[in-house]
Structures
1.
Amino acid sequence: MQKLALHYDEMLQGEFSLKELNFLFAFQVNCPGCFAYGIPAVNSLYEEFKDKVAFLGLSTAFEDFEFNNEKNTTALLKSSEIVGETKSYFAKQGYHINPLSLDFPVAMDSTADEQLNVEDLVHTICKTNPNFDFWPIFEQKQLQRNVRDYLEKQEKISLTFTLNQLRGTPTFMVFNQEMEILAHNFGHLMLHEMKHELETRLSQSN
């Protein structure tokens, strides 16, 4: 079972500590969809399940780095400031600041620096494929080359986003205390589906 590689430097809001069941919401501040349905859904889940499930909102970036960064995430949390496409989205509805609260704990995805070993990143990403060790050697090396080329072309590398090969934002993940990923969804996921997932996992642990 794939394990979540979770990296963040410090909490920007609230506290997070692992429980038997955990919920990760990866978002970007320049992502209107994250605000349109991601944040309201996670707020609702947090209100209902926060006593039994640990929640973490992770602000990340895989594009538009001038918008998707810690400075703008902090401004969002402290004074409801919004930027980029998210600002344009809300302006059409008559809002000039974020009308939504983020009720759950929030951290910023760690960014790779010059000290980080690229080969370690390549190894971790390749291992996200559960069958990697069973591939022929030439296929393993080809994937390693492809991953290395991809990483070297990136302007910045957000560790959690990149190491787990997330497809985009919003992303919703459920994982256990051993960091094993139990559910992984990208894009518009209905609230009742997420609620059912948590209810099912909690009932199985009782």
2.
Amino acid sequence: MCDDTTEDENERYLAKIGRREFSVGAGAVAAALVTGCGVPAPGRPPAAAAPPGPEPAPTPTPPATEPKSEPAATTDLELTQRKVTITTPDGKAEGFFVTPKEGKHPGVIVWPDVAGLREAFEKMATGLARDGYAVLVVNPYYRSSALPILKDFAEWRTEEGKAKIAPMREALTPEAITKDGAAFVKWLDEQPEVETARKLATTGYCMGGPFTFRTAAAAPKRVGVIGSFHGGGLVTKEPSSPHKLFAKMKAAALICIAHNDDEREPDAKTKLKDAAAAAKLPVEIEVYPAQHGWCAIDSPVYDEAQAERAHRRLLALLQEHL
């Protein structure tokens, strides 16, 4: 996940290709901030953004159930948003809730990456809300600090930022996240904007990737889709390893893996696939030609084309299973 190893890899990658080549230009940043991980216009193919040098071949695992078509983004919905507070067994968690203004919509819980809930994830949630979902982004560090935690991902990359976050992460035990996931599901179901006749989804980035598994296992009757984007620690030797939770879930899964994470743990995708198959759950697993962290719009390795591609796959899964 977002640790010193991945940061060192990303630094070497950026140095190799040159920051100017890979950085998002001003216009692209503005668009990303408006749409989040947006979807390209119908008919526009995703650009291939493979890393330089010898390209590690992506190792796609065909989805158990392939959607017949990929939905286009909805961009004309009027939205409403608010800062919220959710009661959990361990205290009061802050969140950002954004939803179409009219009607009821399926709920989505978003677990941010190591830098926590910040403007970038509010913008990404807004993009998903425009696709027709009621989206809650949570502050996973509420046990340690109220918002704001960090203003952007760049702040986490400083020595001060890492020192600030390190003790906060220690509080995010499997037991704590399981309790939080159940509380966030309950809160969403109580909101008038959420269509409770349809299942919920949860997505997670980097550190948040495994939290989607724990949320789905905590509320199997309500969570119908999980989406992990460059999630870290999905397969471990611990009894509570996320991949072992498929047996407790009733959700379809989208697992998008960064190519450098796959190089470090090439067997993880196979173990994930086998665990999902044993639980008879549909799963789509693919190694993307992008660096760890490529979906977060304020990450130095943000890859717009591959982020759009991953988002498009998420929309297809949401449309099929919620």
3.
Amino acid sequence: MKTSRREFLTSISMLAATTAVPLSAFSFGKTDKLKMVLVGTGARGTLFWGARLIQQYGDILEFVGLCDSNPSRMEYVKKERLQVSCNTYPDYEFEKMIHETKPDLVIVTTDDANHHKYIIKGLDMGCDVLTEKPMTIDEVKCQGILDAERRSGRNLVVGFNYRWTPYVTKVKEMLMNKAVGEIRSVDYHYYLDTHHGGNYFRRWHGLRQKSGTLLVHKSTHHFDLLNWWIDSDPAEVFGYGDLEFYGSNGPFKSDKCRTCPHTGECDFYWDISTSNFRTTMYVNHEHVDGYYRDACVYRDEINIYDKMSAQVKYANNVVLNYSLTTYGPFEGWRVAINGTEGRIEAWLDIPHLSDLSVDPADMHDIQMDQNFEEEGKAEPIIMHKLWNEYKRVNVIQTRGGHGGGDQRLQDKIFRTPGEKDPYDRAAGVRDGAMSLLIGVAARKSIESGEPIRISELTDLEPRVKRI
């Protein structure tokens, strides 16, 4: 028996909220497609939540509206990138779009500081909502989202794709099987190189009022992964951070690379005209909003941290040591998980530990590329047992589509929402909140010099077990 579109979205969101309610699968009819609107037509919205959904799931869904603060870019995306026939709306006509199109699902991919506006309005107007990470950038907006989901009776899904890659899923499986016994401490370190790391300081992410700092925008990926692995909520956070490399610390100054008098001297000079995608997506429309995609990484307005660390104590007494560096010579990460019976060590893309087949400068673009074809290669996880020799556990991993996580996440949402996932990878509002609140708490700790309790930020009380 075929259920309704509403029941379908409810089943997805029940799964994301990790309830124990039985789920029902959904079967679309040819004339009964899921109606969606997209708010935010930048790269992430256009490529991942736009073009890919149309290409892979066009038989079961359709876009009935697009919304953006830059109407010029939005029209370009509609005609050239998505090739859809739906109506477009400026950002101040969001409510009009909802009234006219009556969507089942609102997808939010704006800059982080504006996520809450469309999430809350979408929920209150009777829609289910899917948002890019981070859910929002501070505790006040987070509480507003929590309240809106409760009073509306609708549901929010957060698009964490990191959990869905085979490599990190294997780590989760090992932890679920008590490979290290009970987890006691975790060390996680992420290294952004000067290509990808520098990119954050070129864009709106370099302004904390838009991104909440990289402790929220970038680290929320890592904190969600760690919360999922550790299977507990964070309870208390202490942080350190500073801006010492980018921003006003730089030797040169300009508004953007194209007009910079130091192109021959600056290591960060980037000719955006060599990228047809970024030229047609951003340069051709910057006259509308003044947003320069190739802004100077040394401009004085940058006010986020470029080095940061956090120590997190979890409700189950696990201690996490975390760091993020934004100007490394390579990009990758490593983790060590210590337990009562052993230790897991894992890493990806560390040059002296991995056989890299791609140029590090191209790494992030390849991860974003949904069409990048690469034969999967074995990546090792090292399993140490107390009193025993270590052993290697090899996992086949690719790079395109964020290590295969993008496809698996979207398949779960749109193809198989009713299938039980033994690893509990779908993420709901509580997951979104707990991951971003670590970053918020770390930021507040850096500013105050004091540890910050998660329970003081919103009305969510940390749980010893995540579910």
